[in-house]
Each structure stands twice: as C-alpha cells, then as structure tokens.
C-alpha cells in the first residue's frame, strides 16, 4: 500500500474548521487505502514561543481530537513528533543541503516573521520547513494530505528528496502533495480573502471544533458577506458566500449546485442560519468523543506510545540509510 504522512501542530486548544476540512478529514479517508502515519508535531509548535505545561496538554488534546474525528489507531499510526528523535536528526542533515536563499523564499516564514518582528523570529521558525521535510521523508511517504497553504513547503520537501538522492544515491521517496481543491483553503469568516488561521484570525473569523456550538453557529450567522442577496458560488466576487457554501457542502455531503438551487431566492440569512445548525450538529459529537478520550489519559498515552514505537521502526531504518550514505562515522 502507498504511504501517507501528515502532521498538525498543537498550537491551540482546538483545531479549526480549516484544519479539519483542508487536511484532517482526508487523513481519516486515507486510512484504509494507505499505510498512514499521522503526527502531532510538537517540535514545530515551539518555533514561535510557547508555555511548556500548555504544550504538553495540547498535544494530548490534539491526539484526542484526531481520534474523535475518526482516526483509528488500528488503521493508522498516530504519534507525537518529539517521541521519535529521528525527525530532528534527519532535519539536521537536510538543513545542510538546503540553501539559505532557498529557505528565505518560504512565504510562511516571511509572513510570520513580519508579524512577530524580524528580530524576534526564531531560527526554528526559519528552519520549520526543513523539519517538515524530515517528518515526511523519514517515512518514505508517497502522498501528503495538507491544505493549500502548505504547497510551497511540500515543494521544498520534494526538492530536498531529489537533491539528496542525486548527491548520495537513491534514498528517499519523492512525496506528492495531496491537496483536495474544493476545501484546500477555508477562509476567515470575517475576512474571506484570508485563510482561517490559528495565529492570525480574529476570534470571530475562526470556527474551532471545540468551541461552544451555539457560539460557532452565531459566528457563522455573523460571517462577512457582500451586500447582494443572491446565493451563487463565485469565489472572486462573493468570497464570503463561496466559503460558506464550501463549508456547508463539505459538512453535509450536498453538492454546491444542490445548495445553490436550494437557496435560490431565499437570501443569505437562511443559508447562514442553516449552516450554523449544520456546524452545531457536526461539532457536538466530536466534542463528546474528545472529552471521553481525554477522560482516560493513561489509555491515550498508551496509544501514543505504541504509535511512536511503530513510527520509530520506520524512522530508524531510514535514518540509518541516511547516516550511512552521508558517511557518518561508524565503528567497525
Ligand atoms: N484555512 C485552512 N484551510 C484549509 N486547510 C488549512 N490548514 C490550516 N488552515 C487551513 C491545514 O491544516 C493542517 C494543519 O496545519 P498546521 O498544524 O500547520 O496548522 P497551522 O498551519 O498552524 O494552522 P493555521 O490555523 O494555519 O495556523 P497558523 O496560521 O498559525 O499557521 C495543514 O495541512 C494545513 O494546510
């Protein structure tokens, strides 16, 4: 079976609808067709400042949410990044074949460092995509399900795999992005031209899976839309409505055309009200399941330790080949 790898940062208490619809939903779907490795990337989560106690709890919360939305440890390998030291070890090697200029072109670093102030942005934030490449290449992943915002980072992962293979001999599978176009960029409810984001959206712009369902429904009802009335899907001229239709379609399984026809002549208010209810009904059971996973931290930890052991078997093997190929010292 082809391999799939993806990761998510435990940088907030809750994942948001963008994380779920752009990426995690596909993780769930790929469990049966692929040999799937999914990772809570806590090492990525310290690149922009953090609180140690909160981070540890958020890693558990992230794992609990992933289980709640449908990851099944019997059908995939779920683990926490820092439990597998080979990620950081491989990142060092990959960093040594990455150009400074090449890394400097990563737009996510440019955006985030500009927001933080260039003097305060860490080297970890700068080398983030190299650690991400290590995450992926360590597992010889064929495909990486992510949102559109990760396309450039994935391109770097591909370049590094190819470069390493050329320099030192065929070692890595070159991974392909698995970006499902329809939901690849869920936008901010208050600024429908920007992506919904943990770090840059205002509270009104983001729908968290673990937020109070009534509050989420209210946020949907208050989403920014244009001044027209007609419900049509046009991401250029009506980005707010297009975003709501995208979310509605993905959560309900109804096609965009079907929704547009259903709201013909009814205006935005009805659409927002109904979508608010769809979101409310969707997050309710996820919250319940998340709570039940969190209620048994020993069981959760057991599962994550087992996941890390499984992941390490692959990681150790790949790193061994890498160390050998680059000529690291090995006593005879
Ligand atoms: N708005 C989005 N639409 C579609 N996919 C999205 N993803 C994130 N935002 C959207 C995808 O979610 C996965 C996990 O991403 P992450 O752990 O890197 O989370 P993130 O990028 O930290 O999430 P945010 O909200 O975008 O935070 P900031 O802005 O702080 O970086 C990835 O596959 C990502 O593509």
Automatic annotation (TrEMBL):
Keyword Nucleotide-binding: yes
Major site of localization recorded for this protein: cytoplasm
Enzyme Commission number(s): 6.1.1.2
Class in the EC hierarchy, top level: ligase
Keywords associated with the record: Aminoacyl-tRNA synthetase, ATP-binding, Cytoplasm, Ligase, Nucleotide-binding, Protein biosynthesis
Residues the record lists as binding L-tryptophan: 135
Catalytic activity: tRNA(Trp) + L-tryptophan + ATP = L-tryptophyl-tRNA(Trp) + AMP + diphosphate + H(+)
GO molecular function terms noted in the UniProt entry: ATP binding; tryptophan-tRNA ligase activity
A cellular component term, taken from the record's GO annotations: cytosol
Residues reported to bind ATP: 9-11, 18-19, 147-149, 186, 195-199
Record-linked SUPFAM superfamilies: Nucleotidylyl transferase (SSF52374)
Family listed: Belongs to the class-I aminoacyl-tRNA synthetase family.
Protein name: Tryptophan--tRNA ligase
Gene: trpS
């Amino acid at each position: 079976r082809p391999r799939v790898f993806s990761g998510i940062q435990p940088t907030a208490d809750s994942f948001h609808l963008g994380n779920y619809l752009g990426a995690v939903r596909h993780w769930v779907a790929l469990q049966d067709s692929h040999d799937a490795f999914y990772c809570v990337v806590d090492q990525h989560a310290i690149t922009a400042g953090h609180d140690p106690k909160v981070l540890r709890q958020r890693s558990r919360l992230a794992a609990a949410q992933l289980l709640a939305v449908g990851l099944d440890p019997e059908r995939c390998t779920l683990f926490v990044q820092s439990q597998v030291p080979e990620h950081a070890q491989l990142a060092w090697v990959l960093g040594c074949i990455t150009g400074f200029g090449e890394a400097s072109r990563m737009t996510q670093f440019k955006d985030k460092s500009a927001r933080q102030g260039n003097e305060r942005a860490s080297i970890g934030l700068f080398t983030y995509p190299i650690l991400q490449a290590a995450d992926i290449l360590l597992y010889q992943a064929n495909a990486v399900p992510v949102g559109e915002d990760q396309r450039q980072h994935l391109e770097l992962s591909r370049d590094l795999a190819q470069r390493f293979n050329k320099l030192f001999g065929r070692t890595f599978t070159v991974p392909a992005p698995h970006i499902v176009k329809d939901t690849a960029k869920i936008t901010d409810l208050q600024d429908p031209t920007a992506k919904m984001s943990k770090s840059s959206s205002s509270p009104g712009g983001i729908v968290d899976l673990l937020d109070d369902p009534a509050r989420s429904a209210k946020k949907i009802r208050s989403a920014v839309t244009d001044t027209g009335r007609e419900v049509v899907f046009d991401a250029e001229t009506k980005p707010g409505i297009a975003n709501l239709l995208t979310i509605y379609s993905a959560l309900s399984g109804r096609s965009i055309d079907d929704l547009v026809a259903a709201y013909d002549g009814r205006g935005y208010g009805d659409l927002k009200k109904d979508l608010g209810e769809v979101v409310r009904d969707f997050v309710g059971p996820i919250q319940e399941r998340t709570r039940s996973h969190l209620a048994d931290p020993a069981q959760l930890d057991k599962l994550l330790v087992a996941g890390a052991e499984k992941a390490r078997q692959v990681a150790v093997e790949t790193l061994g080949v890498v160390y050998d190929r680059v000529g690291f010292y090995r006593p005879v």
